[in-house]
């Protein structure tokens, strides 16, 4: 059977149009080669909210019969290529419809290719990607994550570059000639075709060994199953306050242990406790109740509950007390307050090092024409 499938992992709303364009491009290119193809999104039990990891698929086959056989399942679970539209998703993905954190390479077949848009090196990305237990390839298309909003699209050719790179790493699915032909229909577009060709020439693959990568076991939980489900719609109650050893005098909101939001995050807040005035504003304004009140009255952003929206930075009245930092600068979700309380000097150096890193992230548009201005600046 000559069927091939491509899984695209992207951030909901911000990259939905990007993912759709890539999937459609694959199908149109496949048809140029006389193949059959179909593109579709994965059903989710949650609405596709801002930043939530989501999936779309493109499946290509030589015949209709092969296509029907391959699609007689919930979703393609052995993909030739997984395209990762934002490199922070390499840490794992939780759409709130799965039962735990899913390694980004979980649905990739042995010897398949993980194709990532990133400005980071392959070795840096491998440290984030969970070990697969079998070898696969990692290919990097140089460039930062392309974010848009619900009503706009950042046409910076990320879709064209990923299509060109796909033709290089998986020519049995689509060829570069077919990609270029699809780009030029119905109207010839030399600039977009050049972007695809350039990515084809520049993309490089690295073989990742079976035991390379992040050895942390992803969190998971067992779903109850129909025998244990209660009648009607039941939402289990949670205690208002969570009891945490060593947190006497503080306050940690009760949270569902299986409801985590950190995979939504592309930026995280870094707190300067030395300048914090304990004004409570970040705690009151946080839409996800992500701040824990420490025993000494500070506000510690809980990194398993924080979705990285940046509201705390926006409302904080103290200059540079809260700074949003690119998620790629971190390898864990540990408490910043505990680090500060243990060794203030070490924490101060750590904080300065982190906030010195450029964020280079933009969610949606801040003003009319932002994307056009950014793209113009990048091409200078």
Question: How would you describe this protein?
Answer:
The protein has about 375 residues and is α/β, with parallel strands linked by helices. It folds into two domains: about 5-210, Pyruvate-ferredoxin Oxidoreductase, domain 3, CATH 3.40.920.10; about 235-255 and about 265-360, 2-Layer Sandwich (Alpha-Beta Plaits). The chain has helices spanning about 15-30, 65-70, 120-130, 160-170, 175-185, 190-200, 280-285, 310-315, 335-340, 345-355, 370-380; strands at about 5-10, 35-40, 55-60, 80-85, 110-120, 135-140, 205-210, 265-270, 290-295, 300, 320-325. The protein has a seven-stranded mixed sheet with strand order 2-3-1-4-5-6-7. A two-stranded antiparallel ribbon has the order 8-11. Strand 9 and strand 10 (about 300) form a beta hairpin. Helix 1 crosses helix 5 and helix 9 packs across helix 10. It is globular, with a radius of gyration of 22 Å. The protein starts with a strand and ends with a helix.
Give a quick summary of the entry:
This protein is an alpha/beta fold.
Strand portion: 15-25%
Q: In the CATH classification, which architecture of the largest domain applies?
A: 3-Layer(aba) Sandwich
Percent helix, as a range, is 25-40%
Order of helices and strands: EHEEHEEHEHHHEEHEEHEHHH
**DSSP helix count?**
11
Number of strands: 11
How many separate structural domains? 2
Q: Span between N and C termini? A: 47 Å
Low-confidence stretches: none
Instruction: Kindly identify the CATH topology of the largest domain.
Output: Pyruvate-ferredoxin Oxidoreductase, domain 3
According to CATH, the homologous superfamily of the largest domain is Pyruvate-ferredoxin oxidoreductase, PFOR, domain III
Largest beta-sheet characterization: 7 strands, mixed
Structural class: alpha/beta
State the shape.
globular
Strand order of the largest sheet: 2-3-1-4-5-6-7
